[in-house]
Write a structure and sequence with these properties.
It is built from 15 helices and 19 strands. It is an alpha/beta fold. The strands form five sheets. It has an eight-stranded parallel β-barrel with strand order 7-8-9-10-11-12-13-14, surrounded by eight helices. The chain has a four-stranded antiparallel sheet with strand order 6-5-2-19. The protein has a two-stranded antiparallel ribbon with strand order 1-16. The longest helix is centred in the N-terminal third of the chain and has 21 residues, at 122-142.
Length: 397
């Protein structure tokens, strides 16, 4: 079973969950919404991290609390601090007074209402955070772990270690990857393609660090042209046995992804989908035959309600679905994904979630297994530790 941080004062799960409904949970309305944002500096060289197309110095988490029936549901997303303002101004009034046991109904209310405010992108991320909080609240009211409340197909989610930023020196790259292997994680991923001329040496350092039996993944973050991507796909597979190439070209270029999938090496899978916000984004990738494995981020694709829709779409196309980041939420949500592949155990998000929450999970045997004895996501905000990183909102109480 995955290790987790125990939280003093966390209410235990009620056996079977039915006692919560019998004790009067039915008819509980959402009483209020609180919104916070915390920006945690990266620990990369010179205070920054880089991938194929982006450089950043901090990662910002927008944390949403939903109150009802003496319980507090917690949800979150990663994005700009303006996402917090969107939740507060556009979404909080829509769910306040709504049925705390009907998160999907409130999800439809939110998605309809933000049509002109901006549904894809920031709007979908804001809805995701609030939707996760509503599902967490419902699970806490009933007294079940969140994954048990969902139509769970699995009780654990395999992970792959993800980091290996393009500005890491070879020594740090090797240490990070080897550390995941030592934890029993059988697959790891590095960022590539910011400086393609440096990638051969970086890939060699990565393969040497993890040995021949660990799967090696690469992520170009859409940095390459189609021709460059095809060249590197063939080299990666042939020289370093890379098995997964994520966004070799932009995820908007479905024809380019299909080209890589059709003409690239047979054992190298093409993946994309982390920037899907609405169901049509995922439908476009699947209908184009653009990916061997689809990705979805529960903190971007409309939360748990949106993810369940994406999971059904992936199953209909007989394509596996991989979780993008946000491990504390994804470990529960993706238990309900029939064609689950794995979860990206992303260095930045692991650091942020360990700073902000008690109750986070640690991989055991290469997987995260949600705790069976704590309701909801099993998370509690570590207010004193989070406060130095606050960029929006106020500490409760």
């Amino acid at each position: 079973m995955g290790a987790s941080r125990q939280t003093p004062g966390t209410e235990p799960a009620r056996p079977g969950g039915s006692a919560g409904v019998a004790d009067g949970v039915e008819g509980v309305s959402v009483e209020g919404v609180r919104v916070h944002a915390f920006s945690v500096p990266t620990d990369g060289p010179d205070g920054a991290e880089e991938d194929g197309t982006l450089r950043w110095e901090a990662t910002t988490a927008i944390v949403v609390e939903v109150l009802a029936g003496g319980r507090i549901g917690v949800g979150y997303t990663y994005g700009d601090v303006s996402t917090a303002g969107f939740v507060a101004s556009q979404l909080a009034p829509l769910v306040t007074g709504g049925d705390a046991l009907a998160p999907a109904a409130l999800w439809h209310r939110m998605f309809a209402a933000v049509r002109n405010a901006g549904r894809p992108g920031l709007g979908a991320m804001a809805i995701s955070a609030l939707d996760i909080a509503l599902w967490d609240l419902k699970a806490r009211l009933i007294g079940l772990p969140l994954y048990r409340l969902l139509p769970a197909v699995h009780d654990q989610v395999p992970v792959y270690g993800s980091g290996g930023f393009t500005n890491y020196p070879h020594s740090r790259l090797a240490d990070q990857l080897a550390g995941w292997v030592e934890q029993g994680i059988p697959r790891v991923k590095i960022k590539t393609s910011r400086h393609p001329g440096q990638d051969a040496a970086r890939l060699s350092a990565a393969r040497e660090a993890i040995g021949p039996d660990t799967e090696l993944f690469a992520d170009a973050n859409g940095a390459l042209s189609r021709k460059e991507a095809l060249y590197w796909a063939r080299r990666m597979a042939g020289e370093w046995d890379v098995r997964w190439l994520e966004e070799p070209v932009s995820s908007d270029d479905t024809a380019g992804l299909r080209l890589l999938r059709d003409q690239g090496p047979g054992r190298l899978e093409i993946a994309a989908g982390e920037y899907g916000f609405v169901l049509g984004d995922f439908a476009a990738l699947l209908q184009a035959g653009a990916v061997d494995c689809l990705q979805a981020d529960v903190t971007r694709c409309g939360g748990i309600t949106g993810l369940l829709q994406v999971a059904g779409l992936a199953a209909a196309h007989r394509v596996d679905l991989s979780a993008h980041c946000a491990p504390a939420a994804s470990a529960h949500a993706f238990c309900a994904v029939e064609r689950l592949r794995h979860l990206e155990y992303f260095h930045d998000h692991v650091r942020v979630e360990e700073r902000l929450f008690d109750g986070v999970l640690s991989p055991v045997g290469g997987a995260l297994r949600p705790a069976h004895d704590r309701p909801g996501l099993g998370l509690q905000v570590r207010w004193a530790d989070a406060e130095p990183y606050r960029v929006h909102g106020h500490r409760p109480g």
